[in-house]
Design brief:
8 helices; alpha/beta; Rossmann fold; 7-stranded parallel β-sheet; globular
């Protein structure tokens, strides 16, 4: 049956940034589809693990500072030690810094680029090597952004990093498809998370954003569940190099 292609029974997924927000929702969605999850990040994600175990999944919390790409081999090793393999990687962890272009600092530039792009690249590289060694292919899903398509305001390093994510999605797909590895991305629209709290608390910016979203509301983590399960499943085997917008219609305006 076609619905069987969306099942992730027995799969092992690494998800970064699972302590809250989009990462927590993504991890739970994958678990509900049948996957066991390795949650990676600097913050405690035990609550996410409890939610996953409540739906019958297994969860491994790996503490790692993803702003430093030297952690990637340890992340992969811990995942393999617990579950014996890796089938899916979702690069969700990210950060944002806001300041005027003329005042933007090198520290804020590096902090965002290191997490959003550099570690994403090297973790993907390490996991892809595992996929090739295992011989069964795999799925890599990056979390991009509306600013993979647009310039934004007062977030130059975030825009640069998320534009880079979209480009890397295509570049990686070109090389990895021959190994049975699918590389795609999801570009969430304006989501009610910690990263957007400043925007939602600004009455004018909040009103401006909502006025452009045909769906008439901010997104929530559960809105990404279907997209991430799809791109992580056999149902998406012939999708590669694509960035899928889940945005309530934002880009259509």
């Amino acid at each position: 049956m076609i619905l069987d292609d969306f099942k992730l029974d027995g799969k092992v997924a690494i998800v970064t940034g699972t302590s809250r927000g989009l990462g927590e929702g993504i991890a739970l969605a994958l678990a509900e589809a049948g996957a066991n999850v390795v949650g990676v990040g600097i913050s405690d994600s035990s609550a996410t693990g409890q939610a996953i175990e409540a739906v019958g999944g297994e969860y491994l919390q790996v503490k790692a500072d993803l702003t430093d790409s030297s952690c990637v081999n340890s992340v992969v090793d811990q995942a393999k030690a617990r579950f014996g393999k890796i089938d899916i990687l979702v690069n969700n962890a990210g950060t944002i810094r806001r300041n005027d272009f003329l005042d933007f600092t090198e520290t804020d530039w590096d902090r965002v680029m290191d997490l959003n792009l550099k570690t994403l690249f090297f973790l993907s590289q390490a996991v892809a090597r595992e996929f090739i060694a295992q011989g069964n292919g795999g799925k890599i899903v990056h979390i991009a952004s509306m600013l993979s398509f647009q310039g934004g305001i007062r977030v130059p390093s975030y825009t640069a990093s998320k534009s880079g994510v979209k480009g890397l999605t295509m570049a990686m797909a070109n090389e990895m498809a021959a190994h049975g590895i699918s590389v795609n991305a999801i570009a969430p629209g304006y989501m009610a998370t910690d990263n957007t709290e400043q925007l939602r608390n600004d009455p004018q910016r909040n009103a401006d954003i909502l006025a452009r979203i045909p769906a008439g509301r901010w997104g929530v983590p559960a809105d990404l569940a279907g997209a991430v399960v799809f791109l992580s499943s056999p149902a998406a085997d012939y999708m590669n190099g694509h960035t899928l917008a889940v945005d309530g219609g934002w880009l259509a305006r």
